[in-house]
Structure formats: structure tokens, C-alpha cells
Amino acid sequence: MYYKIKDILDSTLQKDVILEIPKDSKIGHLATPIAFILAKELKKNPSNIAKDLIKKLQHYNEFENIREVNGFINFTLSKNFLADISSKLLENPNSFIKEVGSKSILLEFVSANPTGPLHIGHARGAIFGDTLARIGRKLGYKITTEYYINDAGSQIDMLGLSIYLTTKELLGQEVQYPESYYRGEYINNIAKKAKDIFDKNLFLNPLDSAFCKELGAFGVNEILFLIKENLKNANIEFDNFVSEKVLSKDMSSTLEKLEQNNALYNEDSKVWLKSSLKGDEKDRVVIRENGEPTYLAGDIIYHNDKFKRGFDSYINIWGADHHGYIARINASIDFLGYDSSKLEVLLSQMVSLLKAGKPFKMSKRAGNFILMQDVIDEIGIDAMRFIFITKKADTHLEFDLDFLKSEDSNNPLYYINYANARIHTILNKSSVKNGFEFEKIDSAIWIDLLIYALLLPKFLESSFSEKSLQKLPEYLKNLASKLHFCYNSSKIIGNSFEGEILSILKIVSLSITTGLSCMGIVAKIKM
Q1: CATH class, 412-517 region
Q2: CATH 1.10.730.10: which residues of the chain?
Q3: pLDDT digits (tens, 9 = 90+) for 59-96
Q4: CB 420 within 8 A of CB 515
């Protein structure tokens, strides 16, 4: 329905028409503000423009009525059109979502350092990225998901040292830990494995730098296995895992490319990127005095590798603390000879958890962090996936775990699943076949429910294009609310238009099932 109406309006009015849902269905099922958009161009009153445009649309049978209301063009859809659309949709449910995109997109997200398990901050970005990929693919975009592994640099040396000291302590040696090191149950578990695998004398002797690097690499492999298990438990899979260590072989050629484009200079025994020429607040160091590359250097090499692969566009999902990092990455992309406007960086804010109104306790397994796996164990993956996209990614999210375990209308996911289960209970009880004589329906609330259910494609498109994924759970909650209202307002079994109601209920269920699947959640048919 959405695509058909939009195609009619776009082709007739020769514009990309925005469709909205009026608050009062009595003035129309759909509306467009196109007259306001044309007002400046035509230098005419929006109301008069709307009336002129309506004349071009009067002959379409899809509309029962078209009217101008305060400059908006409002459409009441014909029941014959709705019946035809509904019949075809139930015959072929795969036709519900149209492939409207074709661009290839490289979507990078999570990319947490392999120095510890995933915490709830990582989880939010992970779920946002995975849901974005699911919706995009549903809409026809060719999306490749990628995890960039920061497996080089000082943090890996610190990981090796942490494993060394913990193992040494397990062997009964007295250990003095530095102020900064990795701690938690996961480090103890890695140290126990290291104690059994490596020669014990290596831990009893003073630490050798080569052994420290070997322990760091060992720790990275162990933690990456843990990270992949965490992701699998959250129903998240990546197409690619790309290693910083492997890409470091391209250091010389990438620096040479930057030099050829006059992007570097030497000062104070360091190599600097002229990022201030490209909008950054200051220039940035890429090679330190000791000849070691900075964190930025690794990211420049990675983005050079990304853009060489020739995707139509690129999306990075980073933590909110990386806001200041965007300008320097864009500068490096431009200096490498690529178009930085092809990269979109989305920021994901942190999450605060409560339990019974009080802050949720940190996990002993991770030291100072709440683990993603702890939240999954507490409330289940479906509830976590749902709640993590109920707010825009760049806004702070706080929720109570007990709230998501409640089995009542206060729990939005339960409320939506209950709507779908209620539909399946009715379908199982009824022996009536589908009906499509919508003219028989004498209650407008059922037609309103049908139209809202048919608008899922609109919400998927806007969720993806605006990167506002919270629109999808909000839509599903509203759809469930409309379903419950209709159920409580009307007799269904034995109704004179029972077959028509069953058709509408099947489409509502299809919308709920499709919408939840785009969030990585399987809709329940029984509660």
C-alpha cells in the first residue's frame, strides 16, 4: 500500500513526496506536506497549491476522498484498494517489503579492543549496528559488516604484562602490579591456561619483552574467542574480522601515499598529519619520536584499506567518546585521495542499568564493567536487543532490568508479543476463511488498524535513512496498542465481517513478525 500510494504521488506530482499519518483518521488516512515545500518555489499560498494538486489526483481509484486541510493534502483510501492490496499481500507475504536500495555499504561496528570481554557500552553499538544491517538488507542494500581488531600497540603489551603477572601470582610468587593493568576473572582464566601451556620458568624469571608480546598475542586469541561467543549469544555475526596487526604491513605504502599528497611533515622528531588543513582543530602525530606508529596511524591504514575496496558508502559506529576523532579520520581520508563524505560516523552513548531502582552491580568477571553477557543472562537477548534501540543511539539510555522481566503492558516487548500471540489464538479458534469485502466493515477502527499495519515499510525506510532505529520499536508498540484496542472494542468470533477481521489480523501479525525480525527477535505466537 505504502509503495503504491507513494509511486502515484511521486509520478503525478513530479516530486519525492513525504507521507505522514494524520492524528485524526476522519480527515484522512495519509497526508502530505508537499504544498508547503512548493510554496517558496511557486511563491503561492500552500492551501491554494494543495487545492491545485488535488485536481491532478482526483481520477485515481485508490482514493475514496482527497481534501485540503490547513495546507496539507489528506487522503482517505478506498476499501476496494485496501482489499486488493491485502489479498495480494497474504498470497505473497514476501512482497511486503520492497527492495528500495541497491548501494553497497561497509558497516563497521563494535571493534572493541581485544583486551577484555564486551561490556554494555559495546553491546549498545553492537545491537544498533546489527539491527541497522538487518533493516538495510531487508530494504535491498548490499551491506557488509566488519569488526576491526586493534591487535597491535601498547594495549596488547599491557595485556601480555597483565597475564604474566597474574600467572606469576598463581605460581605462588609475590607480585607488584602496576597502577594500570587488566584485571578480572577473565584474566585469571587466561592466566590459568597460560600456566599450563608455557614453560613455568618463563614466569619465574624477569619478564622478557619477546615473551610479553607472545603472551599478548595469546591473550588476544583467547579474548577474541570470548568476544565472538558474546556476539553469537546476542544473535550477531560479522562478515569480516580485520586485523590491525595484519594491515600494519601497509604502513610504508600508506605513509608514502600521504607524503605524495603533501599531508605530512616532521617536527620534534615526530611525523605529523596536516589535519588542521582539513577541518581538524590541530595537526596530529602519526609516528612518535621512537618510530612507533600512533593509534591514529593504524586507523589511517585501515581506512585506506576500506576505501580501496570500493564500496558506495561507509558507516562507522563508535562510542560517544570518539566525537573528537571524526575530523582527523575525515582529514586522513581526503589526504589519501578519497571522498570523506562517503563516510558516516554514528556515535553510541553509554547505558546505565538499574535493578529494583538501584544501580546494577559491576561484574567480578570484568573488574569495573557490566558485561554484555551478564545482561543477556539477566533478562534474555530479546529484551536486551529491544531496549537498546528504543532510544536514538547518541542519547543516554537508562533502564531497570526488573522492568524488562515484567509480564504486563509496562514491558513493551511483552506487550507486542502478547498482541501477536492474541492474534494467533483468534486464528486458531476461528473456522472462517479470509474475507476481503471491506465494504462490510462498519467500524473505522479496523480499517485504521489495517492501514497502520500496512505502513511498516515506511517506518523501516525512515529508520534506516535517518539512522533513527527507535522508530521501529515505537511503531510496533503503537501497532500492538491499536490491536489491543480493537480486540477490546469489538466482538471478533461470530462477527458479521469475521473473515475480513481475520485478514486484517494476519497482516498485523505479518507486520509484527517482520518488524521484530529486523530487530533480531523472533515473534512469539504463544504466551
Answers
A1: mainly alpha
A2: 412-517
A3: 999 999 999 999 999 999 999 999 999 999 999 999 99
A4: no
